[in-house]
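We emphasize that the prediction below concerns an isolated chain of 141 residues; any contacts that depend on oligomerization or on bound cofactors are therefore not represented. The input was used exactly as deposited, without trimming of termini.
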Amino acid sequence: MNIGKIISIIHRKRQQFIKKQIKDLNLDIAISDYPIVLIVNAKGKTGTTEIAHDYAMTKAQVSQSTKKLEELGYITQSRNENLRNRVDIDITPKGKILAEKLRAIQKEWQENNVKNLDTETISNLYQVLESIALATESEDI
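Result of the prediction step, given as a token string:
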């Protein structure tokens, strides 16, 4: 099996798990929205460009999700006073609660899927995957 297929399978299975958990917990977000909540919660106030870069999303995808997340009360958007063409996105208290639930879902998936691996193997796996992710950042899509 080639590495692209392996990564694709892992990604799809993880997305399926997260989507099911979101549904089971009656969370009112789409699978495409959850990374934005986690990024903004982790970084604090940030911009659309940074979010798009961090998750390899288009600015249009980020804008669509942020609009919905703002309507639901999870984030706020405001014009940056110093950079007028930048919209700052920040997490709300309601968004922080959601982020905790989403982090728990991610943690559960990860623990379920690496429980048979020793610490050294997990560390090596992270290093290899991070190297691949960094290498793909330079690719033009």
